[in-house]
Amino acid sequence: MTESLEEFLIAxxxxxxxxxxxxVTAGVxxxxxDVVHAYADAGADAVELGFPFSDPMLDGVxxxxxxxxxxxxGTTVRKILEEVAxxxxxxxxxxxxxxNLVVQQSTAEFCAALTASGLxxxxxxxxxxxxxxxLADAAAAEGLDLVLLAAPSSSRAxxxxxxxxxxxxxxxLTHMGTTGERGEIxxxxxxxxxxxxxxxxxxxxxxxxxxxxxxxxxxxxxxxxVVVASALMRKLLDGARPRELGEYVASIRRALDQGAR
Length: 261
Hints:
By secondary structure, this protein is α/β, with parallel strands linked by helices. It has helices spanning 5-13, 32-41, 61-72, 77-84, 99-102, 107-117, 133-141, 156-165, 187-199, 213-220, 230-237, 242-259, and strands at residues 19-25, 47-50, 93-96, 121-123, 145-150, 170-173, 204-207, 225-228. The chain has one domain: TIM Barrel (Alpha-Beta Barrel), CATH 3.20.20.
């Protein structure tokens, strides 16, 4: 794949397609890469791969449980990248991790290793905007799109800076707090989506609390698409196989496409 993450998503969006990025914790099961294939086959536009970390400050109980399971199985960054390098899917792969894992090497070495494995994007949610410069430069040097998060509490000036500096897409949070399934969509989320769309032509995707197909479609109406994580990991932790996870992603894909008509 020669296109950047951002170029790929913009091209997909240009067809009138709401964007769908499902998540899987790398190493959560021995066959976790089969989940990536199932997502891609089910209509994902990119896949987010969570690198498990022992103290994930923004992850709710479901993602924490998935991370704990992966760490207990001996998952490491090196093992993840070795497995990622074997994947053959036609959508971009995005790493989601924490600063502690990034700085175990230099940021330049970390970004180079991600790109060498075939990853096209990177999300580091605990890296604040004021301190992201070195990481952003290292990612750009390796052709890796560094995705920044936008919170409902952010000022318009801060949102403008986030949209200018983010690459790939802008990750809009539906609420303040940790990841996890939610019920109703807060009005602040819809307002955030509208504000971000008014500031940038870069894709805007909602994440944190996207719990079911109808909710995904509703959120996508205020942005360009959604990231779905905890709802999928809850199913996996409860015993769902890759085929079943793919079927659930396909149901979200259908809801998104119907909502766009």
